[in-house]
Amino acid sequence: MTDTDEADAVRRIWSELGLPGIIDVHTHFMPKSVMDKVWNYFDSAGPLVGRPWPITYRTDEAHRVETLRAFGVRRFTSLVYPHKPDMAAWLNQWAAQFASQTPDCLSTATFYPELGAPDYVSAAIDAGTRVFKAHIQVGDYDPNDPLLEGVWAAIADSGTPVVIHCGSGPQPGRFTGPEPIRRLLRRHPRLRLIIAHMGMPEYGEFLDMCLDSQAVHLDTTMAFTAFIDESMPFPAEHEPRLRAAGERIVFGSDFPNIPYGYLDALRAVTGLPGVDEKWLRGALHDNAARLFALALPSD
């Protein structure tokens, strides 16, 4: 399939639903040196990946932006994340500059448990950050680390959503899984968390959190695809609750770091059993539009 064929097929899906496009809450744009290291890690099938993982959209930054636009992605993110101290503030500076030059990118920031974190997180919020990224697995930190208490308080007060990779897929980390997030939400129940990857493989427990709290959302990133179904399939027993949580399901792709096409990611969601067009309009666009207060009418 050519790039044009794929773009046409993607656009056909959302246009037939009566949508103006897609909002993708889980895409990655990073400084080139960081992205190159991420791609090298995937190429080596490192321990957090554990299997061959070809990068489908390994192109330069400008081409990747234009690819999303060709798909009709109306808003996307530049999810950056640190794996060590003294990295997050620099990533935030880069991401703010990227967003200023890319108006369809929701301005993104991140953090790490370190002494200066509350200050640079508050500065990012004041500067217009629309979404934060937290990667518990790669960062290898406890989301309940006392150094993050001021961070979570500032984010909760601002109402800024956080895309958080906290499930134990593709490989478990020291602090992944539902229990650390339950403890975090007990202290900060207003946190607008977007649980990345549907919380795989702890789908049921993260669905519980979503259904129990209006503030918790789940993103579809990589879930339901043939690639993930080989090792971490979404259990059929949870499908009724997935449909019930429809207003808090948001589409994510993990573009460009996916081992299959964007069309495959989209079809994995639109092919879910029992979901209707209203559910799909919410997941692909309207739920995120509400969450980010975007003036993007769906009709």
From TrEMBL:
CDD domains: metallo-dependent_hydrolases. Keywords: Lyase. It holds the Pfam family Amidohydro_2. The keyword Cell inner membrane does not apply. The keyword Lyase applies. InterPro entries: ACMSD, Amidohydro-rel, Metal_Hydrolase. Residues 23-293 form the Amidohydrolase-related domain. This is Amidohydrolase family protein. It comes from [Mycobacterium] zoologicum.
